[in-house]
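Entry for pyridoxal-5'-phosphate complex. Fields follow.
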Amino acid sequence: MNIPRFRPTTSLREAVTFLQSFLPGGLDPAEQFAAGLSDGALAGNPVVLAPSARIALYWLLKSLGIGPGDHVILQAFNFPAVPAAIRATGAEVGFLDVGAGTFEADWSALESVIGDRTKAVIATHLYGNPVDLARVKRICDSKGVILIEDCAQAIGAMAGRRKVGTVGEGAFFSLGPTKNLTLLGGGAVSTSDSIPSAKIRDMASAHRSVGLGASIKLAAKAAAMGVATNPMVFSMTLMPILRFFERRGTDLVHEVMQEPAGPLTGIENARMPSRQMAAVGVAQLCRLERMNRARVRNGWYLRSRLQEVQDLIVCPMRTGSVFMSFPVLHPQREALALQLRRRGIDTDFGFMADCSTIEVDESPESPCPNAERTAREILHLPVYPFLKKRQMDRIADAVRDALQDLS
Ligand SMILES: Cc1ncc(COP(=O)(O)O)c(C=O)c1O
C-alpha cells in the first residue's frame, strides 16, 4: 500500500459536530472554540477568529497602528501571503535570511537589521518547530520592538516551558484543512495584555460569516480529501494519476493546491468561519494533543533513522516541536521525489518560497542565499499522526534506498 503525502485529521467526530451545529440553541461554537483554544493552548490569552491567518496578521498590525513608513522584519523563507499581509498595511518588509539548513531565521543578524522605523519582528514557528523565543524576545525588548509569533503551523508547540503564541505581544494562527488544528478554513489571532483585543474584535465584527452552502462545500471537500488519502483508495486512484503527470514533469496535487503569490486582495469581503466550521474546530480541539503527540512520535523516530544519511539535511527540530511536517534538503530533490514515488512514498515540495525575490521588479540574485537554496532543495516526507512505526520504517528505508540509487 502506498503512503500519501498528507491525511486530514478530520473524521466522523467532526462530521457529527458539523451536523449537530444545525440544531437550534446550545452554545455558540465560535465562542466555544475561541475559549477552548485560549484555555488549552494560549494560557488564557484572548482569541479572535479571522477569515485566515494572513488577515489575522493584517488586523494585528493595524490594531498596533503599524502602516506606511514602518518596517516589519521576518524570515525570507516564508509563506508568501505573510509579507503580502504586511505590505497591505502600507508597511515595508525587511527580510532575514535563514540559517544554512535550519529553515529558521538567522537570529544572529536580527540586532543589526532593526532600525528606527522597525516596529515589529515576526518569529515563524515553521513546520511546528518552535523558534528560540527567549533569545528573540530579549532582542526585541532591548530594541523596543514588538514580537509577533506566526503559529500557523505550530499550535500546541512548546518554546521552552511556554506554549508558542504566548511569548510575543501577539500571535496568529491558520486553521486551514491541512493544519494540525482545523476549522476547514479560517484563522485566528491572539493577544497578550499589552495589546487590547477590542480593536481586533471591532475589525472582525465588520465581516460576514461563510454561508451555509459554502460551509457544506468545505465539509464535502474535507470528506473527499479523507477518502482520496485513504491508503487503499490513494494507491488505486491518486497515485497512478500522480505518476502519469509526473512523466510530464508536473506534481498535480501541488499544482492544484498552490496559490499564486501576489498582493493581498479581498480583505474587506473576506468571510469569518461559520458556526458549522467552528463546530468542527471544537471537535478538533478535543484531540489536538493526541494528534500532536503522534506527530512528535513519528517525527523523532524518522529523524533518528535519517539524521546520519549522507547528502541529506534533516530539519534540526527542537524539543517542543509538533512536527507539522518533516522537511529535508537534497540537491536533487526532484529526482529523490521521483524515486520515492516509485517506492510508494508520496512527497511534496511545500509552499514556502524565498520571499525576498517575490514582488521585486527584476530578478536579482537573492539577497538571502540560504532561503533561496532551501526553497530549491526542500522536500517534505510524510509524518502525519495516522502513520504507524512500520510505515515510518518504510519511509526511512525508501529514502536510504533512493539516495543510494541516486549516488
Ligand atoms: C507559516 C505560515 N504562515 C502563514 C500562513 C497563512 O495562512 P492562511 O492561509 O490561513 O492565511 C501559512 C499558510 O499555510 C503558513 O504556513
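NOTE: The chain is about 40% helix and 15% strand.
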